[in-house]
Amino acid sequence: MKHRRFHRFLIVFISVFMAVAVLAVGKGNVLADTYSTTDPTVYSDAATGLRCVILDGQATISSFTAPEGFDGEMSIPAKLGGAPVTDIGLNAFKACTSLTSITIPDSVTNIGDMAFGDCTSLTDITIPGSVTSIGNWTFSDCTSLTGIMIPDSVMSIGENAFHYCSALTDITIPEGVTRIEDGTFAYCGLTSITIPEGVTSIGDDAFNHCSALTSFMIPDCVTSIGNWAFSNCTALSEITIPGSVTSIGNAVFSNCDAITSVTISSGMTSIRSGLFSYLRTLTSVSIPDSVTSIGDKAFIGCRSLTDITIPDGVTSIGDKAFCMCESLTSIEIPGSVTSIGDWAFDSCTLLSSVKIGDGVTSIGDGTFYYCDAITSITIPDSVTSIGEQAFSGCDALTSITIPDSVTSIGSWAFSGCESITGITIPGSVNSTGLCVFNDCTGLTSVTISNGLTDIECYTFQNCTDLTSVTIPESVTSIGSEAFSGCESLTSITIPDSVTGIGFKAFENCTALKSVTIPESVTYIFAEAFYNCTSLSDAYFLGDTPSIYEEVFTGCASDFTINYLSNRSGYEDWDEYPKVAYSDPGFSSKASAQDVNKTLWWVVGGIVFVALISSTVVLVVRRKKR
Hints:
Elements: H1 2-27, E1 41-45, E2 50-55, E3 58-64, E4 73-75, E5 79-80, E6 83-88, E7 101-103, E8 110-111, E9 124-126, E10 133-134, E11 147-148, E12 156-157, E13 170-171, E14 179-180, E15 192-194, E16 201-202, E17 215-217, E18 224-225, E19 238-241, E20 247-248, E21 261-264, E22 270-271, E23 284-286, E24 293-294, E25 307-309, E26 316-317, E27 330-333, E28 339-340, E29 353-356, E30 362-363, E31 376-378, E32 385-386, E33 399-401, E34 408-409, E35 422-425, E36 431-432, E37 445-448, E38 454-455, E39 468-470, E40 477-478, E41 491-493, E42 500-501, E43 514-517, E44 523-524, E45 537-540, E46 546-547, E47 560-564, E48 578-581, E49 597-603, E50 606-612, E51 617-624
Parallel strand pairs: 3-6, 4-7, 6-8, 7-9, 8-10, 10-12, 11-13, 14-16, 15-17, 16-18, 18-20, 19-21, 21-23, 22-24, 23-25, 24-26, 26-28, 27-29, 28-30, 30-32, 31-33, 32-34, 34-36, 35-37, 37-39, 38-40, 39-41, 40-42, 42-44, 43-45, 44-46, 45-47, 47-48
Antiparallel strand pairs: 1-2, 2-3, 5-6, 48-49, 49-50, 50-51
């Protein structure tokens, strides 16, 4: 009996407890004073649509669901569930597209990450003086927000806090903020900004794509500016970098199309990569003496830049540093510079005066590529290498002196320099790349000093005015198409150090009349003398080398192979008439008139032999071969 009474009592007690609990949730604050101070409790307020987590007697708003009849305006109560609201938590109002204005109570000290992100209809927000921090992406993509007052109590504003607030035209950064974080105001509609004196650093992309920003002042307390900090601020017209800045990132002002002048105060040691890239209206810039390096693409695409002074302290100029500075007319590289990067002055089409200091040891690939106003240049004795395409396309260049300090010349180094008439390759040069002088159509003479071992492929290809060239004893091979298309070349001396002649090496040398092949040559590749229409004699001083197809195809109609009678292999070579000489001095046709010789030729498969002396000609018909 007692057991049944206890059972009924327990059922009634549980029912009453559940009813009270439901009532508490429905009315919002019935059991507020009974929440634990150690375990988190979730609380929902039906009237406001707010949901929060209460921990240690403080409420953090965690989410919002617009209640029925919500008109877009929200005033957050100072308390929820009896606990003071101190935080607006992560994603609390994220993507609440119906929210138009919000008032935050002065109990709140922190606004969390992404709290109002993507609230695209939010136009007005009141932040109380109790707030000390604003989180990352807090108001990002609030595209209708036009203005916001941040109280002086705020000490930190997170990364991308106002990212893409495209209608935000004005904002005041409180004095207590010491750092403008990465992307804080990127893609905003700001027209002006005041950076307070307490700020020491401006982060990456901080104002990137603020395309309406016309002016701002960087205070002299700022020591570092991050990558792309003001990139694409296309309305910005001038900039002053204070002397306090000791560290600056890459491409900080890139694509700021309206900037016409830049002032860099003393203190900066490096102009970083892309710092002023594509400032198309920049006409002048003063680099302070404190700068020691100019980075890659530092001034690339500054098409209106007419003058720049590189101070004596600079030791390196980076790749493409002044590439496409189309209005730059002169440049003096001081003696402190030891290296000039690849394509450093590429396509500086008005650059006519260049002075290279005697500290430079290498000229990089494409350094002066298509600088087609340069007429002359002196390479200092300090230079040991000239890179690929270093002067390619400099079609106004008439003279250049390569010092005997240079040991290597890269491929296409002087390709297309149409106005150069003469060139001397010093004996210090032991290697060159391909096509070094190809298409130098005004080149008439070349002197190659003893030292070079290979004339590489296409080295003098299409040097149509070249009449003579002397190849030194150090050369062992002549590469494919090395002299192809040298239409004015009348003679060439191949030294007895050469062992091979490459494919089409002398193709289309239509003025070449004779050639002497020294004993050292062991192979001649196909079409080596193809279409040399004036070539009537080839003199071989040794045994027949390995001959590939059509070596002399297209030569003069009276083309003759001349060789020494005591040399072997020529009896099986039936493509051309042959003359055998007994005198080693036969290679001059004029001196060969009074020496004994044997002429072979083939007609219709029948070999004819003519034994010739100065007075007698005997023709013998031999059987078909």
